[in-house]
Amino acid sequence: MENGWANDCLRLRVDTKPSVSHRPRLSRGHCNSVRLRVAPLVVEYRRRTHTRRHYRIDTSLSVSDSTPSNVGVELAIPSFTTQGVIPPYVGQQGPGGAHSDMSPYVTTCLEVTRALGTSQRRLDILRGWLTHRRELRRVGITSGFQWLDGSFVEDKVPNDLDVITLFYPPHVLLAGGQAANQFLQTNNHLFERSAVRQAYMLDAFWLDFSQPPENIARQTRYWFGLFSHRRVDDLWKGMLEVPLADPNEAAAVAAVDAGLAGLPGVGP
Known about the structure:
Layout: E1 4-8, E2 11-15, E3 105-106, H1 109-116, H2 120-138, E4 144-149, E5 161-167, H3 171-175, H4 177-186, H5 188-191, H6 193-200, E6 202-208, H7 213-227, E7 240-243, H8 249-257
Parallel strand pairs: 3-7, 5-6
Antiparallel strand pairs: 1-2, 4-5, 4-7
């Protein structure tokens, strides 16, 4: 990666040479390239049956300029389909409608907690996620957003929470060299996949916004294609997007610490 850092086969490293033609070869379970099967998709839900729940959330919410302007106005998470996933789109226009009607749905930490914190297992995972976000801010990763996916955003008992962090790296990583290597070694528990899973109950992946645009486009295509389909049957499904700069995050932390449960019937 140009003047930055990369995750190649889920191993963090510093590379001082640009690699514009780099193609990500990341997979959830191993370092081999992943082939996404192309198969007919059967979507059994009806467009009009999926609406977005709304809560009384402060519409004056201020977030970073990189976040879509609708944050703070429409922050709700669509209800699950009959197949137990978040729909890939909502509204009567179907795909190609308003941006806010398409996955990933922009939301907040508090909304994720309210909608999906429906069991002690889920609250434990939320606590790990929120703690990890706090630690990322501590080391200077404050700008960008996260995509949330996996069993946690399905109507099932979750194993963990899949998180793709798309971010602007701090200066120490942009500078490269020994300082960047030392930063990664010191904070290995925040970035290395197995360490993050053990400490925070997250399956963590990364996309560095300091890369050349071609790399960002290729890697975004890869992650979106991989995580917007259910592994067992290739079902098209939706994801959530939460900005790294979320002023309501403290309220989400307080809700989880208080043992707040989500709305009845949302998930196990």
